[in-house]
Amino acid sequence: MKLGRKFWASMLIFGLIGQVAWVVENMYFNVFIYKMFHATAAEISLMVGASSVAATVTTLLMGALSDKLGKRKVLISLGYVVWGISILSFALIRVDLLTPLAGSTAAAMSLGVNLVIILDCVMTFFGSTANDAAYNAWLTDRGDETNRGRIEGYNSMMPLVSILVVFGGFMGFDLDRAESWTTIFLIIGGVVLLIGILGLWLIEEAPDSNRSVAGNDSYWATVTYSFRPSVVRANPMLYAVLGAFAVFGISIQVFMPYLILYYEQSLGMTDYVLVFAPAILLAAVATALYGKVYDKKGFMASIVPSIAILMAGYVILYFTRSKLPVFVGSLCMMIGYLTGMAVFGAMIRDHIPENRAGQFQGVRIIGQVLIPGIVGPAIGAWILRDAQVIVNNDGTTSFLPDRGIWVGALVVAVVLCGVIWGIGRKKK
After folding, report:
1. How far apart are CA 330 and CA 283, in angstroms?
2. In percent, how much of the chain has pLDDT > 70?
3. E strands of 278-384, at which residues?
4. HEC assignment per residue over 253-291
5. Which DSSP helix (H) or strand (E) runs through 397?
6. How far from chain centre, in Å, is Cα 49?
7. pLDDT band per the 50, 70, 90 thresholds, residue 209
8. 364 closest CA partner among 63, 141, 100, 102
9. Of residues 88 and 141, which shows the higher confidence score?
10. Is the pLDDT of residue 172 over 60?
11. Domains (ranges, CATH) in the chain?
């Protein structure tokens, strides 16, 4: 299928801005409730897990709805608009605003953590409707076997680029001040809202021959389609790869909720952006190019190097604390992470039955988000159960993530190697 400039512009804008919003949630909400409300590792794990459940349920329901409607554009655009409004609402969650309601600063902090977790789930509903369900189904509709690796390579580069954008933008803010977070939520929410409005003119639906539709199936039949035993039996490779993707995601989520806190608090790298940003930039370039490896060589030849590089990054980060080796370890970790995402994403899209992309977004999100989002942070929280505790200026305490998170991530990656080996035998 020939892809025009309008497609690439839509993919760039909606892919990047959507990932910017997800980066703020996945990497900085943890920092937000840690710094503003002194959340524990268990509370951070709860927030990530609850958001993962919300994302999965939403994608199941709304992905099926997009197939039933046979439309993606309206769900993407309006979803981004309401997503932006929900992000704006976080500007109201501040200790100084909550203290009169809660009665004390300590109670306000506890209330703040609970409100963030609840509102995070609400925000995830709108974000997953727009991005996980409708946008990802739209990408599947627009691609085919001749260009899917290239599409997925650029799409998987978006998280890295968005991290770079967020890190660069956040350098101008003092994240220990509530006013900084208010400004951040106003900016991100406003941009997401405006992009949603732009989509009404920019996004083009896929041709009817490529668009996923639910036909005469009822809505609930559409929702449950990808869970039917007959469908699983008919698509064994798809479900095997989704299982491997879940293990891959668990490895990532063991450390990801605590990554910035580890750099800043445990390693004492207050300028971690200057260390991490070059690694992100190089990894983004590698990821954009790596999609072609999948197109030419296939799944096994492209996923094995990604996992090997990822594991090398874990080992380096475990044994080092100074800037240069931490940079090298971060570079390997990010290259392995993002190229792995690209390969898994392309393989999954290639094995989704034709014209049923929306109905399979729910089962995809179970492998990509739900299982990793619950299991990974829980493993990380268990590893950090006896982590060092520091006393804050207000007398409250906070934990310090330690290098044990890299061991946990590595152990899960070893399990992943066994799963990949099994898939390789199945393909042969």
Report:
1. 10
2. 91
3. none
4. HHHHHHHHHHHHHHCCCCCHHHHHHHHHHHHHHHHHHHH
5. strand 397-399
6. 13
7. very low
8. 63
9. 88
10. yes
11. 5-210+219-427 (1.20.1250.20)
Instruction: Tell me which of 39-43, 243-247, 397-401 is least confident.
Output: 397-401
The average pLDDT across 282-287 equals: 82
Phi/psi at 356 (nearest 5 deg)?
Answer: -135, 35
CA distance 307 to 297: 16
Mean pLDDT of 16-44: 87
Residue in the structure block whose two tokens are 């293990």: 247
Query: Which residues, 6 or more positions from 168, have their beta carbon under 8 angstroms from its beta carbon?
Result: 273, 277
One-letter amino acid at 146 equals T
Query: Two tokens at 163?
Result: 């991290």
CA distances 133 to 65, 66, 123, 137, 274, Å, are 9, 8, 14, 6, 34
What span, in angstroms and rounded, lies between the C-alpha atoms of 380 and 178? 27
Which H or E element spans position 391?
A: strand 389-391
Half-sphere exposure of 373 (CA within 13 A, CB side): 21
Say if residues 48 and 253 touch (Cβ distance below 8 Å): yes
List the one residue out of 408, 299, 416, 424 whose CA is nearest residue 349: 299
Strand partners, 399: 389
**Per-residue burial over 4-21, b = 16 or more CB atoms within 10 Å of its CB, e = otherwise:** eeebeebbeebbbbbbbb
Distance (Å, rounded) from C-alpha 394 to C-alpha 234? 59
Alpha-carbon dihedral sign for residues 269, 274, 276, 279: negative
- In this structure, the chain runs to a length of 428
Residue 333 amino acid letter: M
Answer yes or no: pTM beyond 0.70.
yes
What share of residues in the chain are helix, strand, coil (percent, to 5)? 80, 0, 15
